[in-house]
Sequence to fold (143 residues):
Amino acid sequence: MKNVTIQIQQGLPEAARKIREDVFMKEQGFQNEFDEVDETAWTLVLYDGGAAAGCCQLILAEGSKAAVIRRVAVPKAFRGKSYGSLMLQQAEDWLRQRGARSISLSAQVRVRPFYEQLGFHAVGQEYLDEYCPHIKMVKEVQA
Fold:
């Protein structure tokens, strides 16, 4: 994929804020999108020729082997290009290099098959997050 770059930085860059506002708030109707975790989490932003085309957050506490990926979003204009898969592969590599051996996420139930294709499996029961069905999913990773 030429012209595709990925940047990972701590905090919430403006590009990721805009993607999350567009995808989660405007498109999907979520209201409680931003929280205190945004200030300390690492944020991965995928760029397509300079345009922000996807983002997700990475959380790995110092010395922990359990990581969390959250807020995975790709704007409508960039869907169908496998950017979600590319971001998650890069996120997994980044977390593994920093000691993660288990990665969890909270998936919207409607996109559960997407995460299953990437090796995640559902754990526990479905639950509601702002009236939207979610399921916890986990993937074990090797060093």
